[in-house]
Amino acid sequence: MATIAIDPRVSSRTAGFVSTDHRMLVDGRFVKAASGKTFPVYNPATGDVIAHVPEAEAEDVNRAVLAARRAFDDGAWVRMAPSERGRLLWKLADLLEKNLDEFAELESLDNGKPFAIARVADVPYSVDMFRYMGGWATKITGSTIPLSCGYDFHSYTVREPVGVVGQIIPWNFPLLMAAWKLAPALACGCTVVLKLAEQTPLTGLRLAQLIDEAGFPPGVVNVLTGYGEGAGAPLAAHDMVDKVAFTGSTEVGKLIVKAATGNLKKVTLELGGKSPAIVFADAKLEQAVAGTASAIFFNHGQCCCAGSRLYVHEKVFDQVVEGVGKIAEDIKLAPGLDPSSQMGPLVSDEQYRKVVGYIESGIAEGAQVAAGGPVSGMERGWFVRPTVLTNTNPRMKVVQEEIFGPVVCAVPFSDAEIDKIIQRANDTVYGLASSVWTQNLSLAHKVARGIRAGTVWVNCHNVFDASLPFGGYKQSGWGREMGEQVLNNYTETKAVTVAL
Ligand code: ADP
Fold first, then answer.
1. Ligand 1 centre and the CA of 46: distance in Å?
2. pTM for the full predicted model
């Protein structure tokens, strides 16, 4: 096994966890992979290996699914008082909150994001998601329905858990994505097999320990580490899984749908995006500049809802591009655990190459670099400078494809094109999110109505709340996460009719 190098800035507690002999949670026990295989986890700020974790494959997936199946079919979890299920979710939230700094350090070390961001965003939002969904556990109700076919019937609906759920999550918000997935499934009474992203397994493995500590019954939550093809694919295909919930690339989303056809399990998907931010000439410019810069640079652009196409009215185009460019140039690149860091490295060498490749392809196709560019200037680690491209055209790869990095294409539009701007914003296979920047109320609502996306932000971007549904139109996905609406993903509706 290679020498393990952990960042000296992490606390001894975090370092202790990182250097443990990592185990997955299956059927209430902490286990190695059936094959005994492990795979390396990297610090993206240095490229060093920091840990080795079990490499789950089909046999491990099968064991975890059988455990979740037993935990569902024996009925104890489903019959547990909803208030008790809610209490367990609250207890998990409390434990997570108690270990806020440790989770923020782990997330920063493993994913690369600044510690300060993980501490104020990833971890508290995860805590909030468990609490919010814990509240729903007691409020999953049906309705009584008057029938027109005859008076002498009494009909009502009940909402029942969909069963065993396979959940596959990405690396951009490792803990938060685990919370978005686990919390509603558990509130609804499902049992779960969660597969963490291979790039970022550490917070999920630590969460598994808290799940055990909180007292969830064995088999209710199973947590696996493994690669997409080795562990994700058999989970999506498994016949004893009733539903698969996936967050990741649109390309893999399509594979999940195919894998799910064997037993026609239910599928929900939260996929990619190429979200437009539209700035009109009457926008409050300071707010629009700061907001659209944050829309693309937050989390290093590794957000499915990143505002990666910036449409700006020509009257204010130069000002906005200059402002966003200045913010880009001023952002301090440093390892996430460095207190001065405003942007850490991308998550992996693969992502680094992909994002730099996009910047280079844009330049080769004639785009101009208004800020940033393909060379980070950093000695080591997978850093990419926040980059603003202008002089693009709608057919360029950088305008059409999801880059998933801190790269924005700024495009001017004229008065004559105002009516067409909605059409241009919609000119993508995606439909996840968008933002509109204007003080004109009616224009804001008109654009909001016309945009084919699951989220429209007005004079803001990246505002998330456990109570707000989030998900995509078109190839950005199926179904919604969060809010009351996510409960539909994890319940079946049963109609009961009684002849009186
Ligand atoms: P990205 O391209 O951003 O890395 P992916 O869509 O490849 O995102 O990965 C998101 C999640 O999907 C990860 O947990 C990954 O292991 C998993 N995954 C990748 N390929 C497959 C597959 N063929 N079947 C199931 N899961 C997969």
1. 23
2. 0.97
